[in-house]
Amino acid sequence: MKRATLLTTLTLPFLLVGAYVAAAQESDGASEKTAIAAKLDEIKAQFAPDKRLELFNVEFSENANPPKARLETTSAAARNAALELQKDFRNWKIEAALYPEENDELDGKWRAIVVYSTIQIQTVPDYGAEWSTQSLMGTPVRVLKKTPSYWILVQNADGYIGYTTRGSVRRMTQEEYDAWLDAPRLVWLRNVGDIFSEPDANSASISDLVANNVMVWKDQEERDGYYRVETPDGRLGWIEASGAMEWNEWLATRELTAENLIASARRMLGRPYVWGGTSAKGVDCSGLINFAFYTNGYNILRDVSQIQREGIEVDMSKGWRGYEPGDLLLFGAKRSNGAIGWRHVGLYIGDGLFIHSATSVHEASLDPDSPLYDEGNAKELQKVARMIGAPETEYFHPIGQNKAYAK
Question: pLDDT digit string (tens) for 269-279?
Fold first, then answer.
């Protein structure tokens, strides 16, 4: 009994010291994780502040040896800044991968083309989730990640990130993508249309079409007023030649003018308001703007809170009499902290009138004396932006300069 008591007495201090050391190491590890997380938050704020435009996912593996922090991002600047953290946190392994190029699970097939007239891009990988935007047939997208199910995370040609189903796009190697870019392509011009199985409007349809869909002009064949086309997923059919234009000719004839923007927006009059919509099947408020600019050869940011960062700010002191046709009207509610909750956008068409999508696409007025006066929006007009003549940016530029279309 005395021997056991002695051993216990001698062992206890060593056990306590070991526990203290383990606790101290665990505390140091937690402290370092907190410090790394804070640094990554700073990097995110600087290089990837808008999750709609940049992927920025961080995972910590604290039980690894050594513990690891891994960043997945679409921002090369964020990736490089994260790797620089290694010199300050030598007890951790810092990894950072640029997506999609460095995502090995994609096997190099991260280029993709939308295969249907319209596809929905959603906020989370679930059919019941909110639509964030649409993408159109023939639009290039970048596949960023796969999910365990049939959803993929993609980045649209306008920079917008969201989820769609794997079957909505055709994934390609770089070689296949370059071949698609080199192929003669056709742009559908009308609001709606069909790809027919034969050069005959009475034949079976193999797909519907909406304005700005793009297809390969198969062997540049024409017959009886129809072009033979191939969809991005390989379906062959015929479209009315009078409703299409060759891609390069289409690019060359685009002109961003107030008259053209207004005409494009008016093509959508009477179309229903559809949250996340950007096509003739229905549009939301910023989707209408997106459609009008794309139809005239320009990319523009997708959401109101993004659009308001672009363009030349117009002096509002004279009211609507100081605005020019083609200006964007940006509406929002001022919050208690002084910030603006951006919620709506319209296209100014002159004489106090604007066109916007709310319930449906229709015209309204900022003029209290007009029978079309929209009091609710008029009171919350916070900013007017002029895009015609505005400097080009990463997200506002001619479609022909979009890096998504580059080899």
Answer: 999 999 999 99
